[in-house]
């Protein structure tokens, strides 16, 4: 019975954030994703590469909407994505004949590696998964996937986060770097 009682939760939902917080979250996410889309259209499309990957949408929620979360800090964002990308590419290279196994190994191993390095960032799991299920375009990149789109995209998102999140007097980003 105790097992099932734990599923009820222990606290109530947190209060809604102020309208100004929502506005700054929107501005940051809009500018971060716009910059990545613009860089992609000007520079990477001609090379057949992408900069916009789905896990960056989830990262945007954290770095623009939950700026104080430990999961949103630069160490976690950069380390979580880059390590997970490395794991994902390696999993595909080793286990690509069994995509379901490569996907499971990539995500599970990325989580453990992020824990070990204190870089836990939930969207990193999606980055590892994308290295496996991203199709021929991602597989062709091989370990270049770690640099572009992952590391380069993360740097762009973090630059925008540092600039935008420090404009309002009641917001600060980051809480810590390392």
Give the arrangement of secondary structure elements:
Blueprint: H1 2-5, H2 19-44, H3 54-65, H4 74-95, H5 99-116, H6 123-133, H7 136-141, H8 144-165
Helix pairs in contact: 2-3, 2-8, 3-6, 3-8, 4-5, 4-6, 4-8, 5-6
Low-confidence stretches: none
Give the overall average pLDDT: 95
Taken together, the total number of domains comes to 1
* Secondary-structure class: mainly alpha
Give me the number of helical elements. 8
Approximate helicity band: 55-70%
Say what oligomer this is.
single chain
Q: What general form does the structure show?
A: globular
Order of helices and strands: HHHHHHHH
List how many beta strands DSSP finds.
0
Describe the main β-sheet briefly: none
Q: What is the radius of gyration computed over CA atoms, rounded to a whole number of angstroms?
A: 18 Å
Give the end-to-end Cα distance, rounded to a whole number of Å: 42 Å
Which percent band covers the strand fraction? under 5%
């Amino acid at each position: 019975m105790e097992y099932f009682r734990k599923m009820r939760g222990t606290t109530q939902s947190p209060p809604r954030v102020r309208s100004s917080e929502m506005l700054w979250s929107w501005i940051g996410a809009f500018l971060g994703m716009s910059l990545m889309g613009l860089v992609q259209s000007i520079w990477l499309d001609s090379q057949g590469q992408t900069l916009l990957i789905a896990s960056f949408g989830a990262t945007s929620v954290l770095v623009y909407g939950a700026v104080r979360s430990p999961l949103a800090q630069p160490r976690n964002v950069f380390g979580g994505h880059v390590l997970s990308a490395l794991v994902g590419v390696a999993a595909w290279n080793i286990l690509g004949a069994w995509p379901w196994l490569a996907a499971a190994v990539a995500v599970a191993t990325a989580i453990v590696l992020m824990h070990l390095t204190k870089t836990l960032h939930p969207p990193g799991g999606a980055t590892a998964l994308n290295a496996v299920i991203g199709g021929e375009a991602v597989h062709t990149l091989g370990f270049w996937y770690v640099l572009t789109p992952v590391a380069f995209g993360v740097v762009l998102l973090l630059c925008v986060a540092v600039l935008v999140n420090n404009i309002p007097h009641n917001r600060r980003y980051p809480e810590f770097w390392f």
